[in-house]
Amino acid sequence: MQNLIKNRAVVNGDSWRLVRSADEEFSIKEDVILPLAVYLECKDKPHEGRLAVWLAPEQDVAELQPHLAGLPLVAIDFPAFSDGRGYSHARLLRERHAYQGELRAIGDVLRDQLSYMAQVGFDAFVIRADRDAANALAGLDDFSEQYQATVLQPVPLLRRRVSLIVA
Amino acid sequence: MYKYDEVDFRLVRERVEQFRSQTQRYLAGELSEEEFRPLRLMNGLYIQRHAPMLRVAIPYGHFSSLQMRKLAHIARTYDRGYGHFTTRQNIQFNWPELARVPDILAELADVEMHAIQTSGNCVRNTTTDAFAGVAADELIDGRAYCEIIRQWSTLHPEFAYLPRKFKIAVSGSTDDRAATQVHDIGLHVVRNDAGEVGFRVLVGGGLGRTPIVGKVVREFLPPQHLLTYLDAVLRVYNRYGRRDNKYKARIKILVQAMTVEAFAAKVEDEWLHLKDGPSTLSDADVAYYASFFTDPAYETLAANPAGFTDKLAEPAFARWVERNTRAHKRAGYRSVVLSLKKTGVPPGDITADQMDAVADMADRFGFGEIRSAHEQNLILPDVKESELYTVWQLAREHGFATPNIGLLTDIICCPGGDFCDLANARSIPVAEAIQRKFDDLDYLFDLGDIDCNFSGCMNACGHHHIGNIGILGVDKNGQEWYQITLGGSQGNYTAIGKVIGPSFAQADVPAAFEKIMTLYVEQRQDGEHFIETVRRIGLDPFKERVYAKSH
């Protein structure tokens, strides 16, 4: 997959292929990120490559719960960057379902979203094809702090602040 | 007042730099118009009829003389020498140049101000009672919670791209002066049977195209759970609110579609997971934020000093005291409302020189503190009664002393078609025509308390639905017409006004108002307020009078 940022660096040579629709063909050897329905169909069939799943905003992350332990990667689709549902999905996966694998943002993913996406638990970002991932990387550092409890910093600023003052 | 620490400063400055980069990339063609739009909106920047419009946040309407002087400086340096106070207690500048907006933001950051989330589909500025901290009927001073909510909502990574805008209001007093029932979330401080203070949580109120009074989703929320509960409400909205139609995207539509019971149950489910989590407030947290909102150094004073009461013999001063000052929790003090509703000046507008004058008055008479009210007036919260006469004289000199607070000419009004791209009709000239019609102070005082709210389009920035008398600008075949509603009210008995009939041409609006007021005076009983007469006799007599054929 091209234009990928992972572990705060642009990655070349990612083996995952995003399978967008159910009628898209893929080979048994490929590492594929599948739509949920296709994944559920394929997960118990022979496959030499690795299987992952991607969720659309209207899908419920709770449906993934039984499969999370076996998933090396979950992708969340942002059909438009103004659609914020994926941020809640990411937090739910990380905080409620304790998902530890790679969480990849796909779709309309641009520099100005990266800082928030990282805070809610994404650790990989496929930057939209017409934009430069190296340039987008800077977006990860837009903010050095945040007020809220987040996946990256589970202790909200007010608690850290008050403990400083009380101490 | 809250004081920024190093982290607050850093975050605001980082947002300024992020916005500077976004603006530069937009101007260089690296961000499309469509991509830049939500980014600039989330920083309060609209592209308006004539120029960009920048909306600067005044969190819960609190600011200082230092900040006011900075606003005056910005009005002079980057704009055309004035600003406009809004119904969200914020201030707007109508003429900044896009390329210079990052510099304006950098100047604001120096005095602990910003434009973060003053627009866009995110959590907006939290509003509250403009008299918080000084009102006599306050259960608790809600400002510590307002600041806690401000910080929680600022740059919230999960809720930056909501289906639609999201407004929260807090009321800490028995009398709700923050219009909490017409907010996406209204938090009303209440005391339970055990005497504990908590929040009654209302969700799904709002004006706009579909005016709805908020519904209670939780009768009593212990304050330590405030943030986890807000997270739960916002998450349910973020996940399930409609995104296919912007007119159906507010949380009120979701609550309506699900029913309030089902919505509340969904929130409770979500909250069970979040409750007692890391964002639970401890007593120390609340005490820390409350420590910024302690009383100023009040003197021990006797109420009604002779130097004040003697002057009340002067009718103009007595009138001003009656309408433009308000009881204070401390004897010998009153809160002064500076009217931004002088006839001939667009409601809420203020010049740079006036801003400086307010700052000077705040320093000289009121501990340097200023409030903006959602009714688009300014408040000096702590003025000694012994100094009211001097304050009145200064207010007169600077054009703030129109004694019309709460009266018919204290019109809440959006900027309308003169400035706003969304408006169907102009509001400012019509508001002025009404003010001129009712320029006789004796008559105006006799009419008494009347909320008159005016919106130039159905987005309802002027809150026309909750005006006792409301006006809505509508477009009929490219012409400006005006619909009149009666019976709306804000506060504890919030109601949505009803349209009295066909709309009026601009020139006919003042005459319609006159007929309505004449009927009220004829019909009122035992000193009834206007809204009470409307409630008692209903709309029909008003309709008959206003639409009667002249013979």
UniProtKB/TrEMBL annotation, chain A:
Q: Which Pfam families match?
A: DUF934 (PF06073)
State the name under which the record lists this protein.
DUF934 domain-containing protein
UniProtKB/TrEMBL annotation, chain B:
Describe the location of the Nitrite/Sulfite reductase ferredoxin-like domain by residue ranges: 53-110, 344-397
Q: Which residues form the Nitrite/sulphite reductase 4Fe-4S domain?
A: 119-271, 412-546
Q: InterPro entries, alphabetically?
A: NIR_SIR_4Fe-4S, NiRdtase/SiRdtase_haem-b_fer, Nit/Sulf_reduc_fer-like_dom_sf, NO2/SO3_Rdtase_4Fe4S_dom, NO2/SO3_Rdtase_4Fe4S_sf
Q: Does the keyword Transit peptide apply?
A: no
Q: Which UniProt keywords apply?
A: 4Fe-4S, Heme, Iron, Iron-sulfur, Metal-binding, Oxidoreductase
Q: Which Pfam families match?
A: NIR_SIR, NIR_SIR_ferr
Task: Give the protein's recorded name.
Answer: Nitrite/sulfite reductase
> Which organism does this record belong to?
Vogesella aquatica
